[in-house]
Each structure stands twice: as C-alpha cells, then as structure tokens.
Amino acid sequence: QNKETLYETIGGFSRVERLVDIFYSNVKEHSALYPIFPADLTETARKQKQFLTQFLGGPSLYTDEHGHPRLRARHLPFPITRTRAIAWLSCMEDAMDEIDLEEPAREEIMQRLSQTAQHMINTAED
Length: 126
Ligand code: HEM
What we know:
Elements: H1 6-10, H2 12-29, H3 42-55, H4 61-66, H5 71-75, H6 82-98, H7 105-120
Bound molecules: protoporphyrin IX containing FE.
Protoporphyrin IX containing FE binds at residues 36-38, 43-44, 47-48, 51, 55, 66, 71, 74-75, 78, 80, 84-85, 88, 113, 116-117, 120.
C-alpha cells in the first residue's frame, strides 16, 4: 500500500480551501504584501488552491488548467524581496495556526513552502 500524501493527511481539498482563504485574508492586511497583489484575490485564491493541492500530492488541478506551474517565471513580474518572502511565510504560518494544522504535517509543509519562497526572491530590497 502506498504512503498517504500530505494532501490526504491534512484532510484534502476542504482543508486546503480554508488554509488558502485565511492566508489571502492575511496577505490583504500585510503592509509589505498587499501593494503587489490584485485588489480582488478571488482568482488568485482559486489558483493557489489548485496549486497547493498538487504541491501536497493531491490531483494535478493546477497543471490540468494552467500547464506547468513555472512558478519562478510567473512571479517575475512582481518584485519579490527577501522581506516579502518572509512576510508571505508568516501569513501562511498564521493561517496554519488558525486552522490548527497538525504536526508533523505542518512542519513538513512549512519546510517545503520555505524552500519555494526562497526560490521566488527575484529582486533586492526596494
Ligand atoms: C501568484 C506573490 C510565493 C504560488 C502570485 C502573485 C503574486 C505573488 C503577486 C500574482 C497574483 C495574481 O496576479 O493573481 C508572491 C510572493 C511570494 C510568493 C510575494 C513570496 C515569496 C509563492 C509560493 C508559492 C506561490 C511560495 C507556492 C507555494 C503562487 C501561485 C500563483 C501565485 C500558484 C498563481 C500563478 C498563476 O497566475 O497561475 N504570487 N508569491 N507563491 N503564487 Fe505567489
């Protein structure tokens, strides 16, 4: 039998949805982040739910609709500084707190997101 995916461990799509909705409500309130995001985050949140689903080992919802993620390239239009990467991760940690995401899944997911966030940094501090 195959090992359970992180996606299954945390409770599938409904859990990803709650996490992402809270995450973007945090982003909206973060002074370092909201200026570079669209005012209406509906479509951004929809794509992030698709992406995180596949990132955590669930169905390939993002790629099925949008093709290869090419995340670094897709972020190049936005000035992503180290400060913004830290801010992004802190909005995610707060969202994880709010949904009471359980260990050890939480630690493992944060680890992977931290690596990806580092990789998105594309500009020096403004
Ligand atoms: C899109 C910022 C890290 C996944 C975006 C957008 C911004 C942004 C401004 C465009 C929103 C829009 O136009 O709809 C940031 C910043 C980060 C960061 C400041 C800090 C490091 C990440 C990480 C991931 C991620 C770590 C993945 C785990 C995505 C996805 C999209 C997106 C999937 C939608 C791409 C698309 O349009 O198809 N991000 N991001 N981002 N971001 Fe990030």
